[in-house]
Design a protein that fits this description.
The complex is a heterodimer.
Chain A: H1 2-18, H2 23-35, H3 41-66, H4 69-72, E1 75-89, E2 92-111, E3 114-122, E4 125-130, E5 158-163, E6 170-171, E7 181-193, E8 196-204, E9 220-231, E10 236-246, E11 258-269, E12 274-285, E13 312-325, E14 328-339, E15 347-356, E16 366-375, E17 396-406, E18 411-422, E19 433-443
Antiparallel strand pairs in A: 1-2, 1-19, 2-3, 2-6, 3-7, 4-5, 7-8, 8-9, 9-10, 10-11, 11-12, 12-13, 13-14, 14-15, 15-16, 16-17, 17-18, 18-19
Helix pairs in contact in A: 1-3, 2-3
Chain B: H1 3-27, E1 29-33, H2 38-51, E2 57-62, H3 64-72, E3 78-81, H4 87-95, E4 100-114, H5 125-133, E5 150-154, H6 159-167, E6 179-181, H7 184-193, E7 197-202, E8 211-212, H8 222-227, E9 233-241, H9 246-256, H10 258-266
Parallel strand pairs in B: 1-2, 1-3, 5-6, 5-7
Antiparallel strand pairs in B: 3-9, 4-7, 4-8, 4-9
Classes of the chains: A mainly beta, B alpha/beta.
Chain lengths: ~450, ~270
């Protein structure tokens, strides 16, 4: 008891002293006491460490009293990308463009288990006229003018303006016009327990995908999602991603177009060098008899509407093998889909092989990637595939090559080449098409 | 709209998980965090439960960051950590109404050993890192006679490997030709029989058949580890919410007692007593 009192007193004195002396001086003082046998070295270690932790806590408390918690928890992130893009197509003039993308985002913890976030991004503005009878499902739109970015529309009714969902590029030009910023995402996230989250709003697609063949990387989904990610042990985890995607709101239709998705999956570290992650999405849609905005106009339409659902099964797999050749990582990955709502033209896949550094995040790190892309006409909805792949439509196949090179911790140089053709109707008219992008990306 | 029924389902599922979590925490002490501290928490919990029938202590791993996050979110009673809380973690904890109280329950110290016939008298931390990451492969580069260095390491699943990787290698990968061993004793045995070998073990495994060498001029012993002067040493923590009371206090007191610190040493760590 006496010894405890002695230690407690010493801690108190040192804690007060520590407010006025440097940490190194405090350590020297305690070490000297230990050297002289006043306290043991174990007690000295306990005092030094615990005192530092107490000071850290007091500083945190002091900061808390002066700055609101949501400000303390605020984190900012973003990136800027300058792209040179060349488009080729059969019987069409080569097109060269410089394009700019800026994304800025913020996230904060509002209360202990609730987060909020939002992001802004450069956008292609799309204006349209909607009928005053209520539906903005079918839009009358025409392209006018010579500008690279703006798609204007005309028609009767109310004019609305929104951003192209699959692109955040602003093409340089238009007589030096300013680039528009639009809301890229905004969400509220609730975590009732450490391994489960619920999101509401417009947010990053929660489904595990190894490529962008079905979901363009710039897309953020609208609606609701629930994610359970549970680590069974250090090497094995299971997850369940669920989402309800709102595709449109039609005031004259009680059954709005939606996508419901559920994806069970697992991640497994097999040994020191091999790990895998896999999952399978089960899609249920409510799109039959409707027409979606931002369609690439490649899905089959009957009387101008989709003739069936896109109830699909879509497995994905990513397998990493670390350092099999020259200390680099080899990844084999792929996404597959079959649309069970039709028997015709209902298969799609992307199979890829990657070699290089697992992360391209510091100077000199690099990776090369090859992807085989194949997407039949009605394998998936043509409003969502990668917009760089033949304009984001279906009924396309081809090859993609990607090279990434880090120039520094937050800056990289990327090259992406697509050579695509139609599956039905290949090598005719203005097809095949090719596209080459050179990107300089800076993250912050 | 069908979204309503889906929302109800998801909210119902999450609520059910919350109830399960709450019920678990109401019946037991839950410790969660560092895989390095895991064996200490496990053995201490076993002995404590033997001495106190009816008490249930759940010991979880996951890593220091996982344990601290769980503590901040109120999902565990004791967070175990092989590092101190970061400033940002402390701010989040205080912001969430927590009052983190730190206890150093043990020190982690790793001795570097050579065969007694090896003439190398000591290494710098950089030389040690270069040997284990493959930049140095011959003893002649560190002041001994010519000869290929035989690198012995613990397998990557062990807490000793994790500690060595952080303290000595700055989390860089061990060279691919290193011989990975499943125990401290296996490393000590190989180094004792192999003149050109280098290995690392807990302090309890230093015997006359191997030579523990100074790192940056400091030899590994209980005093240098406890004082934190030895470069390959670090404190191991348990965090409670405020000054512990009840069962949590009893458990912490037990670990800090003579008996508890003996268990710490039996697990290959340096006790504070």
């Amino acid at each position: 008891m006496k010894k405890f009192l002695k230690l407690a007193l010493l801690c108190s004195v040192l804690l007060v002293s520590a407010m006025f002396v440097q940490a190194g001086e405090l350590d020297m003082l305690v070490d000297t006491l230990a050297e002289k046998g006043v306290i043991t070295f174990g007690e000295a270690q306990q005092i030094k460490t615990v005192t530092k932790e107490e000071i850290k806590k007091q500083m945190a408390e002091g900061k808390l009293n002066t700055v609101p918690a949501w400000v303390q928890n605020l984190s900012l992130k973003g990136d800027a990308r300058v792209r040179h893009q060349i488009d080729w197509a059969k019987n069409v003039l080569r097109r060269d463009r410089f394009r700019l993308r800026l994304r800025v985002g913020a996230e904060t913890r509002i209360v202990s288990n609730v987060k909020g976030g939002f992001g802004l991004a450069t956008a292609v503005i799309k204006s349209a006229s909607i009928s005053t009878s209520g539906s903005n499902n079918i839009r009358v739109s025409t392209t006018t003018g010579t500008g690279s970015n703006n798609i204007t529309a005309s028609g009767s009714g109310v004019n609305v303006t929104d951003g192209e969902p699959r692109s955040t590029n602003y093409t340089l030009g238009d007589s030096l016009s300013k680039a528009p910023l639009m809301v890229d995402y905004a969400y509220i996230e609730y975590s009732p327990i450490s391994y489960a989250t619920l999101q509401l709003g417009k947010f990053k697609n929660p489904l595990f995908q190894t490529s962008d063949i079905f979901w363009d990387g710039d897309l953020n989904t609208d609606g609701l999602s629930g994610v359970i990610n549970y680590s069974v042990n250090a090497n094995f985890g299971v997850f369940l991603n669920m989402t309800a995607v709102i595709l449109d709101e039609i005031s004259t239709d009680s059954s709005d177009p939606m996508i419901y998705a559920m994806q069970p999956g697992l991640s497994y570290i097999i040994n020191d060098t091999i790990n895998l992650k896999t999952g399978c999405v089960i899609y249920r849609t409510n799109v039959k008899g409707k027409k979606l905005d931002h369609s690439a106009s490649t899905n089959l339409l009957v009387s101008s509407v989709l003739p069936y659902e896109y109830d699909s099964i879509s497995p994905s797999l990513n397998l990493n093998v670390q350092e099999p050749v020259l200390s680099k990582t080899v990844s084999i990955y792929g996404d597959y889909i079959v649309n069970n709502s039709t028997k015709n033209n209902n298969i799609g896949y992307c199979a890829g092989l990657k070699y290089g550094d697992e992360k391209v995040s510091s100077f000199g790190q690099w990776s090369v990637k090859y992807q085989r892309r194949y997407l039949e006409q009605d394998a998936w909805l043509d409003s969502f595939p990668d917009s760089d792949s033949y304009g984001g439509g279906t009924n396309v196949e081809g090859n993609e090559f990607i090279v990434e090179l880090a120039l520094g911790k937050a800056i990289s140089l990327n090259f992406d080449y697509y050579k695509m053709d139609k599956i039905n109707g290949a090598n005719s008219g203005t097809t095949p098409k090719a596209l080459f992008q050179s990107d300089l990306v800076y993250k912050f | 709209m069908k979204i309503k029924s889906l929302s109800v389902n998801i909210i119902g599922l999450i609520s059910m998980l919350s109830v399960i979590s709450f019920n678990l925490s109401a019946k037991e002490i839950v410790t969660e965090g560092s895989t390095t501290v895991l064996p200490i928490a496990q053995i201490a919990a076993e002995v404590f439960m033997d001495k106190n029938p009816g008490v249930d202590i759940s010991v979880r791993g996951g890593g220091s960051g996982v344990g601290i996050t769980s503590f901040i979110d109120g999902n565990c009673d004791i967070a175990t950590a092989s590092r101190a809380m970061k400033d940002t973690e402390m701010q989040k904890a205080v912001g969430n109404g927590k009052d983190p109280k730190a206890f150093v329950v043990a020190m982690d110290g790793i001795a570097v050993i050579l065969n007694p016939s090896n003439s190398v008298a000591g290494l710098t931390k950089k030389q040690l890192k270069d040997i284990y990451t493959g930049k140095i492969s011959d003893w002649s580069k560190v002041g001994a006679g010519k000869g290929k260095i035989v690198v012995i390491s613990r397998d990557s699943a062990s807490g000793t490997f994790e500690a060595f990787n952080e303290l000595a290698l700055d989390k860089q990968k061990v060279r691919r030709d290193a011989l990975m061993q499943a125990s401290n004793q296996a490393i000590a045995n190989i180094v004792a029989k192999t003149p050109q070998a280098i290995g690392y073990v807990g302090l309890g495994y230093i015997t006359d058949s191997v030579k523990a060498i100074p790192i940056n001029g400091i030899i590994a012993d209980k005093k240098t580890v406890l004082s934190g002067k030895y470069p390959l040493s670090r404190p191991l923590f348990m965090y409670t919410n405020g000054v512990p009371t009840g069962l949590v206090k009893d458990f912490i007191d037990f670990i800090m007692s003579e008996d508890g610190q003996k268990l710490v040493e039996e697990e290959g760590f340096v006790g504070l007593k």
